[in-house]
Amino acid sequence: KNEVEQSPQNLTAQEGEFITINCSYSVGISALHWLQQHPGGGIVSLFMLSSGKKKHGRLIATINIQEKHSSLHITASHPRDSAVYICAVRKGGGATNKLIFGTGTLLAVQP
Amino acid sequence: DTEVTQTPKHLVMGMTNKKSLKCEQHMGHRAMYWYKQKAKKPPELMFVYSYEKLSINESVPSRFSPECPNSSLLNLHLHALQPEDSALYLCASSQAGSINEQFFGPGTRLTVL
After folding, report:
1. For A1-10, A41-50, B11-20, B97-106, which range has the lowest pLDDT when averaged over its residues?
2. SS3 B23
């Protein structure tokens, strides 16, 4: 079993819909990252959070440390949001910034 | 400047060739990373440099040789690669220390013939 699980693996939405992607992890963490990767492209860091909630534009990320769960929400989705969204966690403790990645959620937003 | 740049964007090489991938950042970050990403898979960590010293080698074969000549540059030297090494190679950087956001470059798409 992976230490970081994402759901769903694939998601198709209509433009304008509210989207939620979930991430569950089984280890103690010091931080959780949400990343975006367009097909064939590099990775963009969307959020890094260790508690509570963060918002940037139409994107909202929440984390519940007790339940070991995080969600990424996209409001008023747009076709340009189509990408792979990756959850990654940094295990608690240690001096290095090593990330454990989930397998990603492929999002397709149709016009 | 909040960018990590990587060159080349694409590289095709034979199994007997020697080539290098280059990564550069000017954000003052003192930690730099190499990742390998196969299609439809998450990135896999290869190496971490902290203050220009190799701090993590994830049991990467010796045909991959990293180098950090200064705090802004990270190279990955390639020699005698195999076709299964074909992948997207991503570089990232962050502030040194344990909990810092990593900034990723656009990657180099490597094909080994």
Report:
1. B97-106
2. strand
Contacts of B23 (CB under 8 A, 6+ apart): B4, B5, B6, B32, B34, B73, B74, B75, B76, B91, B93, B105
pLDDT per residue as tens digits for the range A70-93: 999 999 999 999 999 999 998 766
Residue B20 CB burial class (10 angstroms; 0-12, 13-18, ≥19): middle
Half-sphere exposure of A69 (CA within 13 A, CB side): 7
**B82 contact A CB<8A:** no
Cβ contacts of A102 within 8 Å, gap of 6 or more: A2, A4, A5, A6, A23, A86, A87, A88, B42
Q: Quick one: which H or E segment has residue A75?
A: none
Spell out which residues of chain A touch residue B104, defining contact as CB-CB under 8 Å.
35, 42-45
